[in-house]
Amino acid sequence: MAEETVKIPQATSKRLPLYYRFLQNFANSGKKRVSSSELSEAMKIDAATIRRDFSHFGALGRKGYGYDVDYLVSFFRKTLDQDEATDVALIGVGSLGHAFMKYNFHKNHNTRIVIAFDPKAPHDGKIISDIPVYHPDMIEEKLTELGIDLVILTVPSRAAQQLTDRLAAVGVKGILNFTTIRLTVPPSIRVHTIDLSVELQSLIYFIKNDVKDSQL
Terminus-to-terminus CA distance in the chain, angstroms? Predict the structure, then answer.
């Protein structure tokens, strides 16, 4: 009988890279063990939430001892596949796209932008921030050639769905969507949407309500 796979809640999954980053910081400072309370203070996440998240992966710590930092760093590195870099394509080299390319992710994460596409680029490509940039007409050819499964989308909203349909046709598995529309995709593609204007409006709302609450 096959071993049953434990389903990790999405909220927990999104926090895993944060745990890995902060545990790396502890390890780099020479710390050998850490409690959920110490992690809570550093990360500003409730200690009960941290213990609950960790419990999905079995006994990662011991009562009265806490968590072995080096073990957790190794565990989360393996869980997040940090030892194997993932190649990413960027579509849309405007202000936000340029920022992504200048930063590139491989310096701090296990992802790296290896190719980009923009309507102003020539079909035979040009180099920006050490990354080749091609005209969008080359998307299918280049993504297939490089075997890229993950794409960052920073294009005008009017172009987003049409580009997404093309990405689906070449087997892309994940899209990080920075446009303002909700993309329609087949079940084989996972989309994470980050709408900066919505996040800002949400922050303003909470700030204003915090002020109202403090006046009660």
Answer: 59
Token output for 28: 């780099």
Residue 133, annotated as binding a ligand? no
Q: Is residue 23 part of a domain?
A: yes
Mean pLDDT of 128-135: 94
Q: How far apart are CA 81 and CA 20, in angstroms?
A: 11
Distance CA 79, CA 27 (A): 17
Residue 92 is assigned to a ligand binding site: yes
122 and 143, same domain (yes or no): yes
45 and 97 part of one domain: no
Phi, psi angle pair for 43, to nearest 5°? -95, -10
Find out whether 187 and 171 touch, Cβ atoms under 8 Å: no
Q: For residue 112, which of 95, 129, 96 has the smallest C-alpha distance?
A: 129
Q: Are residues 169 and 93 in the same domain?
A: yes
Does any domain span residue 210?
no
Tell which wins on pLDDT, 186 or 216.
Answer: 186
Q: Any binding-site annotation on 30?
A: no
Q: Is 6 annotated as ligand-binding? A: no
- The answer to whether the annotation marks 97 as part of a ligand binding site is yes
Q: Per residue in 33-77, pLDDT tens?
A: 898 899 999 998 998 999 889 988 876 877 767 889 998 988 888
95 annotated ligand-binding residue: yes
Domain of 45, CATH number, reads 1.10.10.10
Is 112 contained in some domain?
Answer: yes
Domain limits for position 30? 10-78
